[in-house]
């Protein structure tokens, strides 16, 4: 028999993360587009990010029929958080930025994220933004595919911290850190130290 799950955070009831998930207000609207293969991922950080942001939304799929409508959300300038030659580094909103950003964040492996762009030409056509200063990932259970690679929730937090400084969105990471600690505890500290060198 499967263990009862929390419907909100989808964790097993005894490991429910809801008490750790904040409800943070942001000027920026965050639209997370999750590849279906990510929904079963143990950490599913895009879901945690959407739950923690009042102005955040998670959509799951490969082809998004309503994308045009979402991108036309009144009062926001849509941009895609994805590296590229033309990508502009995110900087804090100035006095003149009347319209905040609708930050579209693809969630999946690099290959799956590129597939989302390929299958949704409107996404690929958006102006791209990227993080200027990347702080190291706290995701100690996985070797990053390249330096500066972050989990989705970390990328969202760092983007909002850059855009809305001095407001800080680090509280969004609390359930993520608890998840990682839980996984380390489950595998045993010694195994973790041996396999991950304590990084």
UniProtKB/TrEMBL annotation:
<dbReference type="InterPro" id="IPR039262">
    <property type="entry name" value="DTWD2/TAPT"/>
</dbReference>
<dbReference type="Pfam" id="PF03942">
    <property type="entry name" value="DTW"/>
</dbReference>
<protein>
    <recommendedName>
        <fullName>tRNA-uridine aminocarboxypropyltransferase</fullName>
        <ecNumber>2.5.1.25</ecNumber>
    </recommendedName>
</protein>
<keyword id="KW-0949">S-adenosyl-L-methionine</keyword>
<feature type="domain" description="DTW">
    <location>
        <begin position="2"/>
        <end position="188"/>
    </location>
</feature>
<dbReference type="GO" id="GO:0016432">
    <property type="term" value="F:tRNA-uridine aminocarboxypropyltransferase activity"/>
</dbReference>
<comment type="similarity">
    <text>Belongs to the TDD superfamily. DTWD2 family.</text>
</comment>
<dbReference type="InterPro" id="IPR005636">
    <property type="entry name" value="DTW"/>
</dbReference>
<dbReference type="GO" id="GO:0008033">
    <property type="term" value="P:tRNA processing"/>
</dbReference>
<keyword id="KW-0808">Transferase</keyword>
<keyword id="KW-0819">tRNA processing</keyword>
């Amino acid at each position: 028999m499967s263990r009862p799950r929390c419907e909100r955070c989808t964790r097993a009831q005894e490991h429910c993360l809801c008490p750790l998930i904040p409800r943070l207000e942001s000027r920026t609207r965050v639209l997370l587009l999750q590849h279906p293969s990510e929904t079963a991922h143990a950490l599913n950080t895009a879901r945690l990010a959407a739950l923690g942001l009042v102005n955040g939304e998670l959509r799951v799929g490969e082809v998004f029929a309503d994308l045009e409508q979402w991108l036309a959300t009144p009062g926001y300038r849509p941009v895609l958080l994805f590296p590229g030659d033309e990508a502009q580094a995110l900087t804090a909103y100035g006095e003149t930025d009347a319209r905040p950003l609708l930050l579209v964040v693809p969630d999946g492996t690099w290959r799956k994220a590129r597939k989302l762009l390929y299958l949704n030409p409107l996404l690929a056509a958006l102006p791209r933004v990227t993080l200027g200063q990347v702080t190291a990932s706290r995701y100690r259970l996985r070797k990053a595919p390249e330096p500066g690679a972050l989990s989705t929730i970390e990328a969202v937090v760092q983007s909002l911290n850059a855009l809305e400084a001095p407001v800080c969105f680090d509280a969004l990471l609390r359930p993520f850190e608890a998840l990682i600690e839980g996984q380390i505890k489950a595998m045993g500290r010694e195994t973790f130290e041996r396999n991950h060198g304590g990084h």
